[in-house]
Amino acid sequence: AQSVTQLDSQVPVFEEAPVELRCNYSSSVSVYLFWYVQYPNQGLQLLLKYLSGSTLVESINGFEAEFNKSQTSFHLRKPSVHISDTAEYFCAVSDPYAGNMLTFGGGTRLMVKP
Amino acid sequence: NAGVTQTPKFQVLKTGQSMTLQCAQDMNHEYMSWYRQDPGMGLRLIHYSVGAGITDQGEVPNGYNVSRSTTEDFPLRLLSAAPSQTSVYFCASSYSWGMENTEAFFGQGTRLTVV
Fold first, then answer.
1. 3-class SS at A110?
2. Which residue of A has its CA nearest to B40?
3. Which of A22, A90, B14, B78 has the greatest number of C-beta atoms within 10 Å?
4. Which residue of A has its CA nearest to B89?
5. pLDDT, tens only, B60-77
C-alpha cells in the first residue's frame, strides 16, 4: 500500500517570492510521482511527473520538483510565483506494476498575495 | 476532442434518493476511475475499471455502484444518498500501462449536496 503526505494544507506567499510545497510518500515498491494542479472550480491537470532518470523535473510554467529517494520526498518549488499560480496542488504516486492507479495527498492550497 | 465529460455539474439530493453521475471519455482509455474530493483529504478512490466489463473497489466504495459496459462510459450510482456523500466527485481516465502513458485526465467535477 502507498500513502502520500502533504505537510502544509495552506501556503500563503507574496507575489514574486519563492515557494516550496512539500510532499513525502510511503511505499514498499518503486513508484511514479506526480504533481497535479487544480484551479478554482476546475478539474485536475498534470503539472509534472517523475518516472525515471534525472531526479529533477520541470514544468513549462517554471515549477520544478526533485525526487529524493532516501528521504522519500518529491517537493515542488518555484523561484518566483505569480498571482495566477493561486490554486490547489496535489502530490500523487502510482505503482507502475499495478496500472496507473493514483494515490493522492491531502492537497496544499497556494495563495499568492499581491 | 472533448476529453472527459461529467454530468451534471451540480446536484442537490434528499436523503434516501438515488441518482447516477455520468462520465464519458473519447480518448479510448482503458482505465477509468471515480474519486471524491473532501477538504483536507485530497482525492480518494471510490471505484475503478481497467476495461469494459471489469470493475473493482477503491478506498471508499460503500454506498456506490459502478458498471462499465463500454470503453467510453463509466457511470457512478448512488443507491440511497446520505449527507456523508456530500462532496465533489471527479471522474478520470488514462491508459492502463506504459511509462509514456501515465497522465490521468480529469473531468470538471460534479458538486453533490445531500440534504
1. strand
2. A106
3. A90
4. A43
5. 999 999 999 999 999 999
